[in-house]
Structure formats: C-alpha cells, structure tokens
Design brief:
By secondary structure, this protein is an alpha/beta fold. The chain has one domain: Spore Coat Polysaccharide Biosynthesis Protein SpsA, Chain A, CATH 3.90.550.10. It has 7 helices and 13 strands. The strands form 4 sheets. A 7-stranded mixed beta sheet has the order 5-4-1-6-11-8-12, with helices on both faces. Strands 2-3 form a two-stranded antiparallel ribbon. The protein has a two-stranded antiparallel ribbon with strand order 7-13. Strand 4, helix 2 and strand 5 form a beta-alpha-beta unit. The protein is globular and about 40 Å long. The model has no long low-confidence stretch (mean pLDDT 93).
Length: 235
C-alpha cells in the first residue's frame, strides 16, 4: 500500500438477516463455534486493525451486549435509529472512522484459514494515489450456492466496472474492501447503498479490484450457513 496502512475498519451489522429466519440476529449466528461477527473482528485484528466501528440497528442491544465482552480490536458502536443501508451507514459513522482509508467488511463473511492474509493483500495492494476504492472480488464460477449474474468486470490494469443489465460478470464482490473518506463527501440524506460510492469512484477511474481465490462465502442463507460449517470442518 502506498502511504499509511489502514488501522481502522467498519463492520456492517445493521441488516435484518431476514433470509435466515428466526433465531439470533445474523451477526450472532454461530459457525464453527464462533459468532459470525467475532469471526470478522478476529480476522481484522489478525490483519492489524486496532479500531473497529460496528453499526447496529436490528436487535442492536443484543449485538452491542455481545461486543462489550471483546478485547481486541477496540470497538466503537454506530447506532442507527433508522436503518441507513450500507452507504448511509458508513456515512453516518464517518466521524468515528477518521480521515484515512479504512476497511469495510460485511459481518456475515466466512473465510478459510487464509482470510486475514487476503485482507493483508488488500492493504498491500491499495494505492491511494490511484484508488478511492479497492474491492476484494471472487470468481463467480467458484461461488457456492450462487446462481446470479455476477457483480463486476475486471480490466487488466486492475480497474473494475459494475455489471449493467442484462450482462453477466465474472466476479462477485466478497463484502471486503478499502475505501477513502472522500467517497462520502456530500452524501445523500437517509438510506443509500455503497454502490453509489462505487459508481462515483468508477466515473473517476478510481475503482479497483483484487481477486481472492481462497475459501470464502457469505453466510446469509441457511444453505450457505450449513456450507460454512462444512467448510470449516474440512481438514
């Protein structure tokens, strides 16, 4: 990475988790004996993150009570009175994230043993002179329990562009990224998705991607949660 390595991250934990049905809130679902949000925070800590902002909304008290028992990284809570989606959530938490580039990570990601290594590679690949966003991507053809059209095209110089309907694209967004605070200057009010920030970076030629080919999936459905258990149990 050219410049300062990120030491701050945001973990997105304000979603409803409705696809998983009843039970604990999604960030507190356990995989391999560990809550999903703890897996995300453990991986960030292993990658050198010292401060993590966690946004909460749905069943916020349960998630915040769980996080109160953690030691590392230092946890700051960004409570959302109304759900602000991914982009609005990051904009709402910007004062806690600071003025340097930061990681943003979904709370439902499950990685193989090299997950922290991929976050390190993401940090090493981030060049602030050229990039406003660096997204960790995954080959669509290798994604389990996924039959969608993909998210991004990747050029030979590392720049990415979002898929436009009715195209298909060869890469999925993993839910891990490094962003600069400037992407959230003059944000729209209320709830909005991070894709608006990606479009802003893409329009300026500053949206880049890095491909991960290790074991990864998001555990947002019962089928994926079960697959994550099996993945972690494999030798």
């Amino acid at each position: 990475m050219t410049g300062t390595r990120p030491y701050t991250a945001m973990v997105l934990a304000a979603g409803l988790g409705s696809r998983l049905g009843g039970g604990p809130p999604k960030p507190l679902r356990r995989v391999g004996g560990r809550a999903l949000i703890d897996r995300a925070l453990d991986m960030l800590s292993e990658a050198g993150i010292v401060r993590a902002v966690v946004n909460t909304h749905h069943r916020a008290e349960e998630i915040e009570a769980h996080l109160a028992g953690r030691g590392q990284p230092d946890i700051l809570i960004s409570r959302e009175r109304k759900r602000l989606e991914t982009g609005g959530g990051v904009a709402h938490a910007l004062a806690l994230l600071g003025s340097e580039p930061f990681f943003v990570l979904n709370s439902d990601l499950v990685w193989g043993p090299d997950g922290a290594d991929w976050l390190g590679r993401l940090a090493a690949g981030f060049d602030r002179r050229r990039m406003d966003a660096l997204l960790l991507l995954y080959p669509t053809a290798r994604a389990v329990h996924y039959e969608g059209p993909g998210d991004f095209h990747l050029a030979s110089d590392g720049r990415v562009c979002r898929r436009r309907d009715p195209e298909t694209a060869p890469f999925l967004f993993t839910g891990a990224q490094i962003l600069v605070p400037g992407l959230f200057d003059d944000p729209p009010p209320g709830a909005w998705p991070l894709t608006r920030a990606y479009d802003r970076a893409e329009a300026e030629g500053r949206l880049f991607g890095l491909v991960c080919e290790g074991a990864w999936l998001d555990a947002g459905t019962p089928e994926r949660l079960a697959h994550a258990e099996a993945m972690l149990a494999s030798p």
